[in-house]
Amino acid sequence: MPDLHDNITRYARLLIKIGVNLQPGQPMRINAELGHRDFVRVVAAEAYKAGALYVDVVWSDALTHKTRYLHSEADGLDYAPEYMTARAREYLDRKFATLSLTGDEYPDAYEDIDPARMRRARMASQARTSFYSDAMMNDVVQWCVAGVPTPAWALKVFPGVPADQAVEKLWAEIFRVVRLNEPDPIAAWQAHDARLTAISKTLMAERVRAVRFFDPAPAEDGQPRTDLTVGLTRAPAWVAASAGTPEGTRFLPNMPTEEIFSTPDARLTRGWVRTSKPVFVMGKEVRDAYVRFEDGAVVDFRAGQGEDALRQLFEIDGARRLGEVALVDIRSPINQSGLVFGDTLFDENAACHIAFGKAYPPGVAGGSEMSPEALAELGVNVARAHEDVMIGTDTMNVTGIREDGSAIEVMVNGRFAPEMLSSE
C-alpha cells in the first residue's frame, strides 16, 4: 500500500503524463500559491523527468493581494505592468504547457474586501493578458487545473478534526476522484473519457439545439426551483473530458472532470435558475442565488449570501450572458462523496452548471479555427470573466430540444437518461 508521499508523487506524475501531457522538450508553467510549495517541488521534478525544457513557477499570495485591495489608491488598482503582456506572449510563442493549482491557503482572505476594488484590479490585469486567456480557451496549448490540499481548505471540507488529519482526508478524496486508486489510472481515465465522449456524440447525433433544465421541487415562492432554457449556437459541439491542441496533443483541462459541455448562443437563454451549491465570486462566497434571464441576459438576481459579489460580476461587460452550459450526472464520484469542497474545480464536477461570461470556442463545431467575427455572429459570448455556478440537483430533469423542435430526454432526476447511455 503506497504511503501518502508515494501517492503524492504518483499524483504529480499523473498530472504531467495525462493532465498536461507534457511533451519532451516542451517548457511548462505552474501557477501556484505559496502554500502549494511542497507539491510544486514534486511536480516540477516529475516535469523535468518527463523532459521539460524549463519549468516556470508563478507564485501567488492572497494576503499580499489583500493588502493591495485594502490600501492601494483607487488609480493604482487600474495599473498592471507591461511585462505581464511580454511574459504571456512568450508563454504562447514557446508553447508553455500550463498547470494551475487550486486550493486556497487563506480561503477567507477576501471576505472583508470591497468586491468593486477587486474587480477593478483584476480587469486591469486581464486587459494585459486577454489574448493569452483567449488562446487557452481555444486549446492552443495544453493546460490543466488540479487541486492541492492546504490546512485551511481541508478544515473547510472536514471541520472539527485536527488540521493534519483533515489534510490527509482531503488528499484521500482527491486521489479517489482523480482515479489514482485504480490499478491503472491512465487506462481508467481513457475509459472515463470514452464514456463521456459517447454521450457527447449522442447529443450531436440527435442535433440538440437547446437544453431545458426543469427542477419541479418547489422554491420559497411556490414556483419550480428552476425552469431554464439555454439555446445553443447553430453549430454546437459537445465536449467531453479531454481536449486537443492543433498539433493533436490530447490533454485533460480539469482533473477531476465529470462534465460534458457546450457553448450557448448568448442571446437565447430564458427563464430562471437557482444555484444548488455555494460558489466563490470575487473572492466571496455566494449561496442560494436566483437568476432570471430574458433574451439571453440576466434581468433579475438575488442571493441569500454574497449578492454584492454577483452584482460586481454582472458589472463586467458580457458577464450577464452565458458562456458555457455543462451536464454532470449526480452519480459523479465527487457528488457521491457528499462533500462540499468549496472549490469550483471540484464542486462544478458534482452537478450540472452554467457559466456567466466568456465562452469556450471549442463548444462550437470548428470554433477554434473561426475568427472573432464569425464566433460573434453565432452568438458566442465575449467577456473578461468566466464564473461557473452549480445548478444540478437530484430532482433536475434536462430535456434536449432538437433542430426540428422535437424533444429528447437527456437527464432524469439528475441522471443521464437511457437514450444518452445506449452508445456507451
Write the layout of secondary structure elements.
Blueprint: H1 4-19, E1 28-33, H2 37-49, E2 55-60, H3 62-71, H4 83-93, E3 97-102, H5 115-137, E4 143-147, H6 151-157, H7 163-177, H8 185-205, E5 208-218, E6 224-232, E7 243-244, E8 250-251, E9 254-255, E10 260-262, E11 264-274, E12 279-281, E13 284-294, E14 297-305, H9 307-314, E15 322-327, H10 333-336, H11 344-347, E16 353-357, H12 372-377, E17 386-390, E18 397-402, E19 407-412, E20 415-416, H13 418-421
Parallel strand pairs: 1-2, 1-3, 3-4, 4-9
Antiparallel strand pairs: 5-6, 5-18, 6-11, 7-8, 10-15, 11-13, 12-13, 13-14, 15-16, 16-17, 18-19, 19-20
Helix pairs in contact: 1-2, 4-5, 6-7
Walkthrough of the structure:
This protein is an alpha+beta fold and 424 residues long. 33% of the residues lie in helices and 27% in strands. It contains 13 helices and 20 strands. Strand 1, helix 2 (37-49) and strand 2 form a beta-alpha-beta unit.
How many DSSP E strands?
20
Uncertain runs: none
Assign an overall shape: globular
Structural class: alpha+beta
- Strand content range: 25-35%
| Rg over alpha carbons | 21 Å
Terminal Cα span: 33 Å
Helix percentage: 25-40%
Instruction: Quickly count the helices.
Output: 13
Major sheet size, sense and barrel closure: 9 strands, antiparallel
